[in-house]
Known about the structure:
- With 296 residues, this protein is of the alpha/beta class.
- The chain has ten helices and ten strands.
- Helices cover 30% and strands 14% of the residues.
- The longest helix is centred in the first third of the chain and has 12 residues, at 15-26.
Amino acid sequence: HIDAFDPDLVLSTYPLGTAGLAWLIRHRALSVPVASWVSDFAPHPFWVYRDIAMNFLADDAATPAALCAEPDARYRVSALPVTSRFHARDRRVARAELGLRADAVVALIGCGSYAFGDVLNLVRTVAEVSPRIQVVAACGRNEQIRTRLGELGFAADRVVPMGWTDRMPTLTAAADLVIGNAGGATALEAMASHVPVVLTEPIAAHGVANADLMAVAGAAVLCSDRAALAGFLRTVVDGDGPADAPGAAPLGPLPSTASTPSADPPVSPVPPDPPASPASPAAPASPARAEAGAES
């Protein structure tokens, strides 16, 4: 298939695909340059390879973790691997489009396309903090969770369960903060939209790795449990809440509720390359993303 397509470059956003491409290169069955665009904040050891031309990471803080996995590989920080539909926009306009409350602190809870984790108790915890909070729960393809959320007993304007939707860019722009448990695509989409990210009780393994690294990098607030999350949300509700001015930026940088080890700023051992050409996938002016699962 690759030979028939005759590409100038293969850019992989899927770990198993990258592994197969690296194998072909090692066995001299592929001469086309290959790059990997790591789709999470923390690079999993199986996502980076020394055989390919470049491994693109989401943040400088990810470089030391990638080097631990594969010291001989080449790395560079690139634009976030999300579609350009996710960007900063007028929050009030986004809320009006969706019919969300203009006077609320809107918390978007996104737990991936299948709503992994204890979503029911997470939504209950957030909603019980204050009647000023409106919870929008993106349940993806998990219809059972969406139905059960509707049975929690909250008013329709307090908890809004959402099924699979193609309106995640608008939902993200409408939120004051995005709450998740994995630090994957939803978190990166929030970052691209300039919406603060809060992570709590991250799912095992790579969810924990994402959450820890995002907290260390200052890219997210990490609340160790639901009690810490509720305490943090009370500080948000007691503060300014949504900005009054139309088009104002979302809530400012949020302090972390989790203690993180001090560390020297990560230093990338990769020397800077010449400026990328306009066709380069790393060009920050044209962020892009493989659309599969982008709206999860």
